[in-house]
What does this fold into?
Amino acid sequence: MTDLSGRRNLDQNSTNYADNESDDGDEGERALLGSGRSQKYPPIKSMEEENTWPFVRRILVETVPTLLLATVGVTFTGELLERVSDWGAINRVNELYILIPMLNNLKGNLEMNLSSRLSTSANIGELDERSTRKRLLLGSSSLLQVQALFVSAVAAILSFLLGLVISPTSRSSSMRRSWLLMDRRQASSHKPLFGRDPSRSRLREFSVVLCTSMASASISGVILGSFMCTLVLACRRWHRDPDNITPPIASCLGDLLTLCIIGLVSSVLVRTMDSAMPFVLMVPLTLGLVLSIVTTMRNELVRHLIFMGWTPLLAAMVISSGTGMVLDRFVDRYEGYGLLSIVLGGLPGSVGSVLVSRLSTALYASASNRFPANDKLAHNPRTSVTIMTLFLVTLPVQGLFLTFIQVMGWTELPFLFIFLFVVMFSSLVFFSLIVAKFLTEYLWRWDLDPDTYAMPIQSSIVDLVGQFMLVFCYVVAQALGADVKSKA
It folds into this structure.
């Protein structure tokens, strides 16, 4: 009960509500339609004054460019993931391969949570006061570091344990080749086989995985956290709804940047794995975590958030570990699997996050006006229009993506498989939107903050379901005679 009530108290005590004596339901409805704005900004039309087409047009104008940008980002992320198995660091410390989807999912969730919280704060007027804005943004940045460093450490531990459980013979084909090649090289140099000396080699492996995870999460958190804060303020300044814009960008940039940083950091650390460098690097990372905790606890606007949201983050991490194992098993078995898996989970998850953010803003705006039935907005007919609009928006984006990868020659897939992929993709988008709607309503009903709790669970479920749906596409296409085997 304290999770949501603390946020509500902060909303109700905001000075922006002092003069807010608007009509019954107008402000909450504005939040769902395109974000209710404080008196400092021009108000938008109420629900009764706005026709369906202007409402849909505003969603299209604000979501189509961001979804296109998100698709480009996840496309390059998928293409980069296709080449991950060729990285020297991945071949030497195979647990990093399990870590990548897990950490990407967690980092994407943290940035999307940040963008959703700030979008809600912007739409209900909390960022209009300069002093409040500064404390809220700085506190949110320090909170992001706490969450990033902590969950990345837990993700590293879990991925390393999963790497111990999964034997080399059960890994994908390129991984098995890497192990055999590594064994031959090590045997020819009369050194102990990699992974056969638990007293030294495993400990050093773990130090590399842990430092890579924490350093990558911290660096990307600084970069993306600053960018998302700036983007929300820019949306507020130019009278755009950050609920429609920030979640997809946070998701795609988070995946791409984190994957690049993992590659750079792991490549450096693997070269120094036989030295004390990974252990030395743990000192500033630990100090950074402690400093971020202290800074966050001193900020009364975000202090309560440090105790919130750990359960969905950890649950998302466990679900993502399953995603990582599916990816590890099939990435080299089927043509273009790594590229398609990122997009299949990324774009539907981004669309669902937009709906979560919009509904959360609507519910908070209605709560600030003390409406007796806060969740009636989630059942408003305009919500159904929003869901259908977001669903239809993804279809041309998906078509552009498939055309792009075919023209670029990144993958060669038969028409039968492409047809099955389109059907599965559309089904996953609809599934993501339905999960987003009902999960937000459920969390609100139980007095839990949707901005914090909904997105990690929603995105991780969509990622995992998307992996299985993609495998199903390949299996069915292969059973029907299509050539979808990897040509590598």
Remarks:
- Confidence is low (pLDDT under 50) at residues 11-49, 167-199, 370-379.
- DSSP finds 15 helices and no strands in the chain.
- The first helix runs from residue 2 to 13.
- The radius of gyration is 23 Å.
